[in-house]
Amino acid sequence: MQVVAGATTGTGNGLGAMPGKMRLTEPYVRMIARNAYFWAWPMVNAYNRRVAVGHVPEPGLAGGMMPIAPPNRLAMLSDYVDPTERLVACPNQDVVYGGGIAALDQSPVVIQIPDFGKRFWVFQVVNLRTDSIASLGAMYGTKPGFYLLAGPDWHGEVPKGITAVLRSDTQTAFVVPRIFLDDTPADHAAVQSAITGIDMYPLASYDGVMKHRDWSQLRRYPAVPRSGDDPGEKRWVFPEKFFDELPAVLRDAPARPSEEARYAEILSVIAATRNDPALRSAMVDEAQRAQTELVDPLLQFRNFGIPLAGNWTTQNDGARFGTQYFMRTAVARSSIFVNKPEETRYFSLDLDAAGTRLDGAKRYTVTFAKGQLPPVRGFWSLTMYDQYHFFVPNALGRYALGTRNLDLKPNADGSLTLYIQADEPSDPAQRANWLPAPAGQPFSLMLRAYWPEQAIASGEWTPPPVVVAR
């Protein structure tokens, strides 16, 4: 029997029914809606980012600060990300970012990877589920060349000169290059030639010749519209639209074997309530509740992840979530598009060593013992965020400390102390190690370890505690 619901008249019993069709109760519809909203939230978030670039005519910068490109093209920054951006939470100022969205139902794409020499680099390629679908980077020994990214239904001929073929199991994929940049005038100049060969374009544009572009000369677009005066990340998921958008999202990301029953159940309820305003209203209401009660709290790092000493948390399976749906949604809400653990290990912190919320009204220190800096083959950094996971402008224009800062001053015993506070340290010698905090506001920290050594992967090394300064 087909499971549908229709409008009822005068029953007042919370049931939807049509002659010859099965009734659905409102509590059942709410249960399915709540579960579906939480489970599919990352996919709807990602899909709506694709929708947002559909009108863009050519690669450029949104608001003059973030790379944006039409589907199947890519745009690159030529410097660190602008500190006022609000399109992607938890940015860093260690790399030159790029970004492109592949609409693989339209065409496969060719990803150009130039020779970066000894410079650290990684290209993140993830599907609509935000799971990684490729391994491209310094840590893999990836060769320069042309890489073909194709969707699940493409069976065309691979042209001569393609280095490797990458496959996405969803029709939408995201390509995010990250190229390390030292914070020196010399490296700011040197990185320009390193990034000029980065590109992505439809297969029809491939001719076997490496294309080059000066990414410092990009068209400027207006900022992507935001919702009201929300200080956090631009909203990509709207409860009131969610169930109208979800069928297209699920077509883009076909069910995996373990998800077939889930897909069928969700789609049957959406179809059944399409002509029942009361039950459709209940679905939207439940989505709004799920956003407030389930999703929004996951912006805070302390509410998810693997707990470590000093109230740090981490994750072992970023970008390969599989059926870890809680972690997938938590990461999408707090810091979407993370790298795989062998590419980057993330350590996050909301609370000091005593368990008190980090606050710009206090002064803190974090000390790495001699020989105990994050063990990496790439680089490491400690980044400052406000409570919404964005930068807060400060007089130094400094939002992170780490490998890129060549003037960090160790202590006499070889240890390294970083000073985390809103006001400048009274000792001028500490200024190079000062990470400005937002005055009088809660804040969060993220330590990134790019290309981590085994000591990080095994859990032997974890970050030192952040303590209130004496």
UniProtKB/TrEMBL annotation:
Pfam families assigned to the protein according to its UniProt record, in alphabetical order:
DUF1214, DUF1254
Q: Which InterPro entries match?
A: DUF1214, DUF1214_C_sf, DUF1254, DUF1254_sf
**Domain DUF1214 per the UniProt entry, residue ranges:** 344-454
Domain of life (superkingdom): Bacteria
Q: Which residues form the DUF1254 domain?
A: 71-202
Q: What is this protein called?
A: DUF1254 domain-containing protein
Organism for this UniProt entry: Paraburkholderia silviterrae
